[in-house]
Design goal:
Distance between the termini: 66 Å
Radius of gyration: 20 Å
Strand order of the largest sheet: 1-2-3-10-5-8
Structural class: alpha+beta
Number of strands: 10
Order of helices and strands: HHHHHEEEEEEEEEE
Strand content: 25-35%
Number of helices: 5
Shape: elongated
Helix content: 25-40%
Largest sheet: 6 strands, antiparallel
Length: 205
């Protein structure tokens, strides 16, 4: 292999490392956005837990088939999973089809993950749409976390530690979410709101 060939080989290897490293970070952020453990993602994707762990730590170069299975389990396009930070545009647009959706246990409340994937470990935000009577029950997040629910349509109530507060369109509820909490769509009309979860916020007394 000549000098030019060796140089080209080094460039290809460096490029592969960049893509592989970004892939691992993206998979990990998406997994955490869904609050999935490695075991749960392995079960949903059919990819071994050990392989997913190696991908997240940038210790292996997964096949395209493996990346596709993970993207399907995480409900995002394979293009988004493969995108590197150097390729991201200054203005980034996500289509409806590329927006992950969380559904409450009763199936009546849907949360579209509209936050930026790079902030998911400390800031998450969602577009919440609910049928009347929809209930979202959540376990507590890490200590000091705060959630903000800004209602745009209908009426919601939030219950934390036995305390209940209501909010109508144009009103916002802020509450600590580092303990079990419940969001309900009350009244006879559908509801819509924006929910922002601030993790690692200042610990509240």
């Amino acid at each position: 292999m000549g000098v030019e060939g060796k140089e080209r080989h080094r460039e290809l290897e460096a490029g592969a490392q960049i893509v592989s490293g970004q892939l691992g970070k993206t998979i990990q952020r998406l997994r955490k956005a869904y609050n999935l453990s490695l075991s749960e993602l392995a079960e949903q994707s059919g990819v071994a837990k050990s392989i997913i762990s190696q991908i997240e730590r940038n210790e292996t170069n997964p096949t395209l088939a493996t990346i596709w299975r993970l993207s399907q389990a995480l409900d995002v396009s394979i293009e988004r999973v493969l995108a590197t930070s150097e390729e991201e545009p200054f203005i980034q647009k996500s289509s409806r089809a590329d927006t992950p959706i969380l559904v409450s246990d009763d199936g009546r409340m849907r949360l579209a993950i509209i936050g930026w994937i790079k902030t998911v470990e400390w800031l998450q935000w969602y577009d919440v749409q609910s049928e009347p009577g929809g209930v979202l029950e959540s376990d507590g997040h890490q200590r000091g976390s705060v959630e903000c629910l800004s209602v745009t349509e209908g009426e919601f109530e939030v219950e934390v530690g036995g305390v209940v507060q209501h909010a109508k369109a144009g009103e916002t509820l802020r509450y600590r979410c580092d303990r079990p909490h419940t969001v309900r769509c009350i009244g006879s009309a559908p509801g819509r709101a924006t929910m922002v979860c601030i993790l690692k916020a200042a610990v509240m007394d």
